[in-house]
Amino acid sequence: THFGFRDVPVGEKQKLVGEVFSSVAGKYDLMNDLMSLGIHRVWKRYFVGTCQVKRGDRVLDLAGGTGDIALLLRERVGTTGSVVLGDINGEMLKVGRDRMTDRGVVSGVEFVECNAEKLPFPDASFDLVTIAFGLRNVTDKDAALREMQRVLKVGGQARVLEFSEVKADWFKPVYDFHSFNILPKLGKLFANDAESYQYLAESIRKHPPQDELKAMMEAAGFARCGYRNLSAGIVAIHTGYKT
Length: 243
Ligand code: SAM
Known about the structure:
Blueprint: H1 10-24, H2 28-36, H3 39-49, E1 58-62, H4 68-77, E2 82-87, H5 90-102, E3 109-113, E4 126-132, H6 141-151, E5 152-163, H7 172-191, H8 194-206, H9 210-219, E6 223-230, E7 235-241
Parallel strand pairs: 1-2, 1-4, 2-3, 4-5
Antiparallel strand pairs: 5-7, 6-7
Helix pairs in contact: 3-4, 7-8
Bound molecules: S-adenosylmethionine.
GO molecular function: 2-methoxy-6-polyprenyl-1,4-benzoquinol methyltransferase activity; demethylmenaquinone methyltransferase activity
Pathway: Quinol/quinone metabolism; menaquinone biosynthesis; menaquinol from 1,4-dihydroxy-2-naphthoate: step 2/2; Cofactor biosynthesis; ubiquinone biosynthesis
Function: Methyltransferase required for the conversion of demethylmenaquinol (DMKH2) to menaquinol (MKH2) and the conversion of 2-polyprenyl-6-methoxy-1,4-benzoquinol (DDMQH2) to 2-polyprenyl-3-methyl-6-methoxy-1,4-benzoquinol (DMQH2).
């Protein structure tokens, strides 16, 4: 297979991740529902519902893909606020833009094709920066975290929603079976693409667990860093502030 993700050189990872998301873009939303039994919607609602954000704020959602988080954020910042949805992949952005148009959302969200490692925004330009199920895919995560810190205003909050380390022992075998047997089969069946979903399971296992990501956020310059596990640590929400 051409997705030998485990040992690819750093430079190639970005290209491979690009191929994965271009190949899944059209089926992305359906697959999320199937793979998580719809629970990703609950996690995302909780994530946005507990962000430090108010009406009129300017917020950035990185790796925003098809726009689930941006849509929820838009409700929170209201018509006086603005949401920038940044993603490295033009196909994902296009699906997101079409989906918003279908729902009648015509203003308040700006789409920017950009790499989280090197953001095209000035220092201190956002009240809140989020990244949901995205940091895992970024090659240089430390660079992305530093960029998130840079573009935040003082007092602003950064929030990361990401798969993490499952903490309940009894659940681990179930979760492994789901990841390495069910996921690729669902991928094959519904998206004719087992490899992208194999990549998904592998990328989750390689992502830094809770305390390590917290330390990375501290190293990137965030203050008062902390996290909260959801669903026994299947996912975690990390928070940091710019002071
Ligand atoms: N946030 C959305 C959600 O929760 O449904 C999309 C998450 S999707 C699993 C991951 C997204 O990260 C993809 O749209 C992909 O294009 C994007 N991505 C990967 N590497 C990136 C990078 N270096 N900079 C910005 N976006 C990136």
